[in-house]
């Protein structure tokens, strides 16, 4: 038996403390406390974007890996991240058109994917299950994806964490890559908590197909009609998950009561950034892909992904790609796609038919312009990153461009952002065309961007010039 003259006070205090701790656990988020899932260990390690990290890939036969890279099959490797070793990590090449063109041009700098739980159950990097190493394909600035994710984050759109990494292979220099948090379990927990919803990466099997499900169009109530959604789910999907998503698409198709099926505010913020950066390798382009779809309790959100072809540099698969900088940089924000595409993109089109949502969309543009661009934040983000990465770009053995081309690309990106901001401000104030119809009726109206060469941001000519140096680096890295 415990005897103490203050035993009643001690017991009462212990009970009170337990109640307080229970309350914090249950209601901490409502009180403004960040849950543990919101700040996982990997966020302050690999994704500390204030420095360039190191990733050494120890691979038994690098030459064989490169030869088989287009198959996107995993091999085991040891990944040494900032000096910390992780064994039996799954490694494969990744990409779509970038992977195909890297192979076609005889190049070897593929974007890569590292999966910690591919061979080892529960394997992780301080809570992270998977991340990618983006090769900056057709991005001579090395900054397009980095900048867009910062813009998305600023506009409170859940975006992957990212940071720069100097990658070596078997100790030999391979190049400067952008490490990106892959949207899977760790990403979902960080952004939406442990009881998160479902996450999908819709993608087409063939561009020649209709791909209505990738466009988020309601087809019918049969889950089999949505293979490009459900076959690309990041987590196990049951019948209830399928039913909720299909019902959300049905409501979206009606254009009515959209807030019962769509996280309207988040989607509007996403499209504000998406339209600013002129990214047509996306939901608003003819491919309709390169986004993540999040569903929770029957509510849909769209999340950002893949921006190496943003800022008007996308031309793949287009019969007559637009190259005129005056047209691209003045691209109207009210009709960011041509009519035949717009009508097939209900997540944008049906929201914009609502006057209140349309006004809010314009208001978010006003916020993005005044707070991010006109304030000079974008220039600070670009210049700070450039100062950090430029020593690595200068000696990058597999770079897609020369060092001088990189410097030109950074200056070009800054000018594109400045002019795009000026154009959109003029559109919102009624000084420049804000629809494609107005633009066609008033050719030449808008900011003068004729001095800008968008090819400086990355073009096909760079791929041919990069072949010799990439092959040389591959030969060196293949020798342990």
What this model shows, in words?
By secondary structure, this protein is α+β, with helices and mostly antiparallel strands. The chain has 3 domains: about 35-185, no CATH class; about 195-310 and about 340-365, no CATH class; about 370-465, no CATH class. About 40% of the residues lie in helices and about 15% in strands. The protein has helices at about 5-25, 60-70, 95-105, 145-155, 185-190, 225-230, 240-255, 265-275, 325-330, 340, 345-350, 355-375, 375-395, 405-430, 435-440, 460-475; strands spanning about 55-60, 75-80, 85-95, 110-115, 130-135, 160-170, 170-180, 200, 290-295, 300-305. The protein starts with 6 loop residues before the first helix and ends with a helix. Mean pLDDT is about 90; it is low at about 25-35.
* Anisotropy-based shape: globular
Strand count: 10
Radius of gyration: 24 Å
The number of distinct helices, counting runs of at least 4 residues, comes to: 16
Q: How many domains make up the coordinates? A: 3
Intertermini distance = 68 Å
Give the helix level as a range of percent.
25-40%
* Global mean pLDDT: 90
Major β-sheet annotation: 7 strands, mixed, barrel
Strand order of the largest sheet: 1-2-3-4-5-7-6
Provide the structure class: alpha+beta
Into which percentage range does the β-strand content fall?
A: 5-15%
Write the layout of secondary structure elements.
Blueprint lengths: L6 H21 L25 E6 L3 H7 L6 E7 L2 E11 L2 H8 L6 E5 L14 E5 L9 H11 L7 E8 L2 E10 L3 H8 L5 E3 L26 H4 L8 H16 L9 H13 L14 E6 L2 E6 L20 H5 L9 H4 L3 H7 L2 H19 L3 H18 L8 H26 L7 H6 L18 H18 L3
Parallel strand pairs: 1-6
Antiparallel strand pairs: 1-2, 2-3, 3-4, 4-5, 5-7, 6-7, 8-9, 9-10
Helix pairs in contact: 8-12, 12-14, 13-14
């Amino acid at each position: 038996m415990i005897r103490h003259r203050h035993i009643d006070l001690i017991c009462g205090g212990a009970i009170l403390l337990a109640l307080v701790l229970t309350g914090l656990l249950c209601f901490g988020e409502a009180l403004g406390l960040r849950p543990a899932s919101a700040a996982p260990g990997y966020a302050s390690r690999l994704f500390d974007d204030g420095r360039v990290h190191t990733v050494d890939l120890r691979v038994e036969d690098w030459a064989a890996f490169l030869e088989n890279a287009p198959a996107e099959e995993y091999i085991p490797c040891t990944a040494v991240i900032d000096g910390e070793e992780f064994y039996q990590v799954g490694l494969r090449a990744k990409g779509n058109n970038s992977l195909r063109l890297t192979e076609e041009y005889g190049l070897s700098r593929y974007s890569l994917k590292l999966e910690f739980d591919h061979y080892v159950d529960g394997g992780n990097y301080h809570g992270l299950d998977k991340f990618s190493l983006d090769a900056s394909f057709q991005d001579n600035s090395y900054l397009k994806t980095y900048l867009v994710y910062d813009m998305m984050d600023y506009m409170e759109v859940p975006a992957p964490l990212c940071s720069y990494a100097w990658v070596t292979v078997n100790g030999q220099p391979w190049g400067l890559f952008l490490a990106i948090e892959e949207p899977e379990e760790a990403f979902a927990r960080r952004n939406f908590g442990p009881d998160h919803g479902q996450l999908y990466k819709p993608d087409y099997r063939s561009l020649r197909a209709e791909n209505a499900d990738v466009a988020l169009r309601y087809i019918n109530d049969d889950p089999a009609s949505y293979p490009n959604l459900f076959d690309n789910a990041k987590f196990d999907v049951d019948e209830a998950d399928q039913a909720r998503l299909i019902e959300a698409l049905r409501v979206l198709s009606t254009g009515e009561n959209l807030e019962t099926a769509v996280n309207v505010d988040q989607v509007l913020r996403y499209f504000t950034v998406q339209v600013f950066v002129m990214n047509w390798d996306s939901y608003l382009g003819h491919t309709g892909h390169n986004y993540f779809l999040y569903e929770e309790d029957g509510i849909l959100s769209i999340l950002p992904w893949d921006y190496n072809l943003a800022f008007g540099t996308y031309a793949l698969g287009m019969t007559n790609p637009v190259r005129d900088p005056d047209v691209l940089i003045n691209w109207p924000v009210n009709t960011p796609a041509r009519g035949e595409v717009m009508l097939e993109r209900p997540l944008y089109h049906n929201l914009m038919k609502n006057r209140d949502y349309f006004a809010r969309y314009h208001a978010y543009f006003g916020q993005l312009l005044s707070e991010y661009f006109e304030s000079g934040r974008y220039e600070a983000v670009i210049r700070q990153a450039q100062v950090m990465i430029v020593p690595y770009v200068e000696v990058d053995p597999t770079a897609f461009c020369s060092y001088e081309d990189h410097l030109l690309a950074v200056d070009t990106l800054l000018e594109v952002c400045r002019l795009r901001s000026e154009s959109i401000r003029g559109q919102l104030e009624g000084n420049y065309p804000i629809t494609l119809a107005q633009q066609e009726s008033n050719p030449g109206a808008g900011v003068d961007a004729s001095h800008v060469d968008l090819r400086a941001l990355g073009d096909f000519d760079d791929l041919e010039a990069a072949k010799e140096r990439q092959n040389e680096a591959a030969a060196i890295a293949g020798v342990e």
